[in-house]
Amino acid sequence: MVIFFSACSSNQVTVETPNQVVVIFNHPKNQAYFKLPSGGSVGNNNEKYISYINKDFIKTHYLPTNNIDTLIIPSNNHKYTELCHRYKGIEDIIFLLKAGDTINISYNNNNYPILHSSLSQKLTKQYNIHTILYPKKSKWNFNGLTLIKNTWFLNLYRYKIKEPELFNTVFKKFYTDYINIDSLCHSIIPDNIYASKTLDSLYNNDLICNDYYNFFKTKIKKDSVSLNHFMKNNFSYLNVNRDSAYNYFLKKFNDSLIYSLTYHNLVESYYFLESEKDNVKQIKESNSMFLDTRTVFENIIINNEIPPKTKQILLNECLKRIIKYFSGDDIKLYLNKYLDITKDTLYVNKIKEENNLDFTNTNQLKIKSLNGETTTLDKVIQAHKGKVIYIDFWASWCAPCRAAMPFAKELRNDYKNKDVVFIYLAKNDTEQPWKQATEKEGLTNNCENYIITNSKNSKVLQELQITTIPRYLLFDKDGTLAHKNAPGPEDKVIRQEIDKLLAKTI
To answer: Among 100, 143, 227, 334, which is most exposed with the fewest C-beta within 10 angstroms?
Structure first.
């Protein structure tokens, strides 16, 4: 069975096989983030908020973009498949969908997803059981557990309790975002009891089937255990006995569950436990700090208590971070190790394609335009000889890069009819998010836009020491690098530097 995505002009889609689920999004809403009362936001502006497990048991993310958007996912010969729909950037809602069903998703006034089954009204009610079990009584229409697990709200609470002076000065402007975590926790307890009793009532009255009853009963129990642990450990999820946690996960590991999204979430939780082992060091760079995921990868390889398919899921998690933080040589090494263990050539090739991993000639900075044409940075600079060139290294996922874009637009407008070329190079990015961010930031006019296809092993980037972004370069009319670390577009000095180079004759 092949998974595919397509835009659809009608709500009517024919399901050709029961070994799939068709999901139709009707006027999907932006669920990437929640705007806080203070004016800030929590969530991820670029995140694909739909997730499921594909036929290769890989957790896959999807972003519906059209007014009517259709997603077809495999049920992998199971009676049900799980789909996670993130709500307003921070709350994950997992739906249990019947194989062979076509489901229309619409949205209520709060942008909360409402599902409609094409098979039966009973399934429609079961799909929307969240709205019955978890009425939105908590602040800002969220599930209470979602709020207490969010780092932003938790840290605000801790500052107010432990460092009130700091809270009343530095964090005063965020007071409207504050949540009393203690009171919220105590309100969740009766909410869970209500959910459990309501679920029992629905089941006893034959309004939900045994599968849904067991699925949500397990969820409610897990939520209660998580809440109790949180409250007993002084509002922290970190105070956990490692040995007992390892034993807990190892008992839960079961390769027959690899097509379950809930199981993948469990395995991902174990990944973070592996990341806390004593031999996993933190690596510090100029403006970032991250864990040495290479060591996590090695630790997982030698752990014979982890079943093979579950181990592959964990190694996938490691690869994502190795690709993000480490060099091309490291990436190539660990992709080969992964291939030796899993024999999964298709996945490795897919990873290379998605992350623009080009391990060939590294003497040039290879780039690709929005229409797919490939070239090098040297050729682009030579093509604009006689003009000042301002280069902006950025990425769709980089918050500081995106924050500078309004200033970048003003800068481009100021030099619109002058001999200045603005070039934007996406570093360590993937194509779909890059293209979406390019459109959103207006980087299609009065500038040139490319994605770097050999970010991880380009000697050009190494020589320029471009390890973090945003980063800016300024070339004179001869095509010579005039400023290796030029001011950003928000800095008034950049105009002075550009004007100096414009006044210079060749």
So the answer is: 100
